[in-house]
Design brief:
This protein is an alpha+beta fold. The protein folds into three domains: 83 residues, no CATH class; 107 residues, Butyryl-CoA Dehydrogenase, subunit A, domain 2 (Beta Barrel), CATH 2.40.110; 149 residues, Butyryl-CoA Dehydrogenase, subunit A, domain 3 (Up-down Bundle). The chain is 44% helix and 14% strand. The chain is built from eleven helices and ten strands. It has a four-stranded mixed sheet. A four-stranded antiparallel sheet has the order 2-3-7-6, with no helix packed on it. Strands 9-10 form a two-stranded antiparallel ribbon. A hairpin with a 2-residue loop joins strand 9 and strand 10. Bound molecules: flavin-adenine dinucleotide. The site of flavin-adenine dinucleotide has 19 residues, from strand 1 and helix 11.
């Protein structure tokens, strides 16, 4: 691991900044991007712009149609996009499903889905969790029974983020009840327009609609949409979840929070003095800055381990998930506190433009209360902190 300044990375950062300056349309910027996937039309439009540049898949290898960037280049790209206020990408398609397709899918499946992902023509959601099967995912009960060239799917998924605005879902189903539970799971790609799928909204604590219950009632899915062999679903899932943990710290978001806090430190007053003049505020800010630096070091460490294909990257990814998400919660809470009365403003939807809103902290305060509430869930989704601690203990103490 090398912490020397990397001149090559600085040149790359300048290239990304120049690209963003020239290609990111002003009307796509400045919408809150922290906790939520950007609005469908914005995300799709931005994805096409990235695709024209050849930067549509920063997380994929070159031979798969990606940029082939190193982990640190990806980090720089994400940071600059967040700082410029660019729309998000479809994380489900790019960070989770894409690597699975590249590693396990048939050539026909790749041809059917990869170009649409690269060009932002098709958005995806993740159908894993069920009522009673979250941490213990292998206990899932949604059945897929073979009927000729089709599977007939029956069951229920829950917490399906963005199911209501996704075109396809990648789904874990039980295809065999006779074997060990992990061995009876398969991985299907399902068109959300297939008859028999019902999506019901779940309104979350941030007063927004990202989450859903998704019901499958005799849904006929072509057997050709199964990725890997029947029963391979668990191995594919382990591969996918490793990727999910490793990116969950969301360092660009942590850094954006710090920039917002620093801005508030000088613009928000307590009495006649700026917040930063309060010793309590300054000390807390300094501590959080130090903790974000520590997470940054950890990200570099994981990057180095991943580059060397080291097994330890997995446990480190879990440490990153726990530390990063706990910091997301603490910093977003501090932001709301620092905003004082304005922190209590709840916006009905985080994408609301708030035109005409007389907030003195316009551009800083908007959507922060929603985001702070949403971050309560960050230590749950992608594997809870308790489960991550179990993984870390197992790896470190070789249990
Ligand atoms: C905002 C949000 C978005 C989500 N999006 C999606 C999505 O798009 N697709 C999807 O499939 N799922 C999604 N999820 C579901 C998420 O993956 C699960 O909530 C998570 O895996 C936990 O499962 P659970 O909710 O069933 O809780 P449970 O597994 O029932 O856990 C309950 C409690 O028990 C603890 N616990 C459980 N097992 C252990 C253990 N072995 N050791 C120690 N403690 C344990 C947990 O830490 C937790 O505190 C989302 C969840 C949230 C909150």
């Amino acid at each position: 691991m090398d912490f020397q300044p990397d001149a090559g990375l600085d040149v790359f950062r300048e290239e990304v900044r120049a690209f963003l300056r020239e290609n990111l349309p002003a009307d796509l910027t400045g919408k809150p991007v922290g906790s939520v996937r950007s609005m469908r039309p914005d995300l799709m439009r931005w994805q096409k712009i990235l695709n024209r540049k050849g930067w549509s898949a920063p997380y994929w290898a070159k031979q798969d149609g990606g940029t082939g960037w190193t982990v640190l280049q990806r980090l720089v790209f994400d940071e600059e996009c967040v700082a410029a206020g660019a729309p998000t990408q479809d994380g489900f398609a790019h960070k989770l499903l894409g690597p699975v397709l590249n590693a396990f899918a048939s050539d026909e499946q790749k041809a059917a889905h990869v170009p649409a992902i690269l060009n932002g023509d098709r958005l995806w959601c993740q159908g894993f969790s069920e009522p009673g099967s979250g941490s213990d995912l292998a206990s899932l009960r949604t059945r897929a029974e073979r009927d000729g060239d089709f599977y007939v799917v029956n069951g229920q998924k829950i917490w399906t983020s963005y199911a209501h605005e996704s075109d396809w879902i990648f789904l874990l189903v039980r295809t065999n009840t006779e074997v060990k539970k992990q061995a009876g799971i398969s991985f299907l790609l399902v068109d959300m327009k297939t008859p028999g799928i019902t999506v019901r909204p779940i309104r979350s604590i941030d007063d927004c609609h990202h989450l859903n219950e998704t019901f499958f009632d005799n849904v006929r899915v072509p057997a050709a949409n199964r990725v890997g062999a029947e029963g391979d679903g668990w191995a594919i899932t382990k591969f996918l979840l490793n990727n999910e943990h490793a990116s969950a710290a969301d360092l660009p978001i942590l850094r954006r929070y710090l920039i917002q806090l620093r801005k508030l430190a000088t613009t928000q007053r307590m009495g006649r003095d700026p917040l930063i003049a309060q010793p309590g505020f300054a000390q807390r800010l300094a501590r959080l800055e130090a903790e974000v630096s520590a997470v940054t070091m950890l990200v570099h460490r994981v990057a180095a381990l991943e580059q060397d294909h080291s097994h330890a990257a997995h446990a480190m990814g879990s440490i990153l998930k726990v530390r990063g998400t706990e910091l997301q919660q603490r910093i977003s809470e501090f932001l709301v506190e620092a905003l004082g009365d304005y922190g209590a403003v709840a916006y009905p939807e985080p994408h609301d433009p708030c035109d005409g809103e007389p907030l003195p902290l316009q551009g800083v305060g908007r959507g922060i209360a929603n985001e702070m509430f949403f971050r309560r869930a960050s230590t749950i989704y992608g594997g809870t902190s308790e489960v991550q601690r179990g993984i870390i203990a197992k790896m470190l103490f070789q249990l």
